[in-house]
Design goal:
There is one protein chain. By secondary structure, the protein is α+β, with helices and mostly antiparallel strands. Helix content is about 45%, strand content about 10%. The protein has 18 helices and 8 strands. α10 (about 205-215) packs antiparallel against α11 (about 235-250) and α17 (about 400-415) runs antiparallel to α18. The longest helix is centred in the last third of the chain and has 18 residues, at about 400-415.
């Protein structure tokens, strides 16, 4: 990724568009919003978004607006909620967050969302990394989502556990240990076996997240760039699956439950030593440590390295459904929440990595140490990890394949009740049942 400055004309246009946010608003239904007669905007997000303080800030600057916020625990449940309401034709919030993994499905019904070009998207498009803005644009050129964060991946590791196993714990030395710019998954699993031999403990929390990372790293994942299914007969993908299965069979998986980890206990009791970390996952770890009573002495750190090189996992968008009674005000709120100034604040609150260029530049310039991760300059590291990242095409059933096709098959590997061949066959059976023949 190359940092660049917007040209003067674009900057002035963007500033003019954002300046409108501080002015009074009137709804499309005719209501004039004021402090005495506020207009309510609903917002639905998921996971750790870091918007709580921003809502209050926006309300203070816009006394005619009240925000009613809902946060769903994780993206998969938000997907179910969104598509249930789309099918019903009502119920979506004025501003609705969309996860990258199910953006492909949303694009199939993109006509049910407001085209943000009607509310100035073209004036501020240069705020974003170009591929992020393109992701939120449908084939007809309609912008249906403003980007929030992106998910470049680094490697989280527990320095205390590394030291106990005779491995280096300094994050620079750890990056070199894994191979630096030439880090590979082969080296990752090789080191995992060394760690297992030295400690008798697992290397990673469970197979699912490692698999997601490996697939997201491919030039083409579950779908080709042309939108064709790309699983059955994909020798490269099957080879990666077999590599992961071998590592799991060697005892490198802690067989943890995704998004639970024993209510965070596994992050404090030495259950595993490494964790794949897209930017937003740092916020997840923070929440898990807080749940388990872990603190600054947890041992967790963040290294500027990732097996196989540059990779992006996740990131979100803010959209406005056509069912909103206040599309103009909702679009203004979505633009404000995703503006660079707010993305900097969101990053500090949620430990994620912004998708706008100026916000990224700010994080690199400040190089703020992250106390929870042994004072790692997480913003600088994520900026480095974002170099070379290009978003993978996500098809309409991408998240279903990730969670409901490979998810169950990988759980059998973690539990030791299958091998690479039988788990792969199970995944193909589920693929046919849930996607191909559905």
């Amino acid at each position: 990724m190359i940092f660049s400055r917007r040209n003067t004309a674009a900057a002035l246009a963007g500033a003019a568009a954002l300046a409108l946010l501080a002015t009074g608003c009137s709804s499309n239904s005719g209501q004039t919003a004021s402090a005495d007669n506020p207009l309510e905007l609903t917002v639905t997000t998921f996971g750790t978004f870091g918007y709580d303080d921003l809502y209050g800030e926006y309300e203070k600057a816009n006394p005619g607006i009240k925000i009613k916020a809902t946060n769903i625990d994780r993206g998969s449940n938000a997907r179910t909620d969104a598509f249930t309401k789309l099918a019903a034709g009502s119920g979506l919030s004025d501003v609705t967050a969309i996860e990258e993994g199910w953006l492909g499905s949303i694009m199939e019904v993109s006509d049910q969302f407001v085209d943000l070009n009607e509310y100035g998207a073209g004036d501020i498009k240069d705020n974003w990394v170009d591929w992020k803005f393109k992701q939120g644009t449908d084939p007809d050129g309609r912008v249906i989502g403003y980007g929030t964060d992106i998910g470049p991946q680094g490697l989280c590791f527990n320095g205390k556990l590394f030291e106990a196993a005779g491995l280096p714990s300094d994050r620079t030395a750890v990056a070199e240990l894994f191979g630096g710019e030439d880090a590979t998954w082969e080296r990752y699993f090789e080191l995992g076996k060394q760690y297992k031999d030295a400690t008798g403990k697992a290397w990673y929390d469970q197979s699912g997240f490692v698999w997601n990372s490996m697939v997201n790293q491919m030039e083409e994942g579950y779908y080709t760039k042309d939108g064709e299914l790309n699983v059955d007969g994909n020798a490269e993908m099957k080879g990666k699956f077999e590599m992961l299965a071998a590592g799991t069979a060697a005892g490198l998986s802690a067989n943890q439950t995704q998004w639970d980890w024993g209510n965070g206990k596994a992050f404090t009791d030495g259950s595993f030593a490494t964790f794949v970390c897209p930017g937003w996952m740092l916020g997840t770890i923070k929440g898990q440590l807080e749940s388990a009573g872990g603190g600054l002495d947890s041992g967790w750190d963040f290294a500027d390295v990732f097996p196989g090189g540059a990779s992006n996992w996740g990131g979100a968008f803010l959209s406005v459904p056509k069912t909103s009674e206040h599309p103009q005000e909702a679009a203004k709120l979505a633009a404000w929440l995703t503006a660079p100034e707010q993305q900097v604040k969101q990053s500090a609150a949620a430990n994620n990595f912004p998708s706008t260029l100026k916000a990224q530049e700010k994080l690199v310039k400040d190089a703020t140490p992250n106390e929870l991760f042994n004072d790692a300059p997480t913003g600088v590291i994520l900026a480095n990890r974002a170099k070379g990242v290009v978003a993978q095409f996500k098809g309409p059933h991408d998240s279903v394949i990730q969670e409901n096709v490979f998810g169950p098959a990988l759980k059998t590997l973690d539990a030791g009740t299958s091998n690479a061949d039988s788990a792969w066959k199970e995944a193909l059976t589920l693929l046919n049942d849930l996607v191909v023949n559905n």
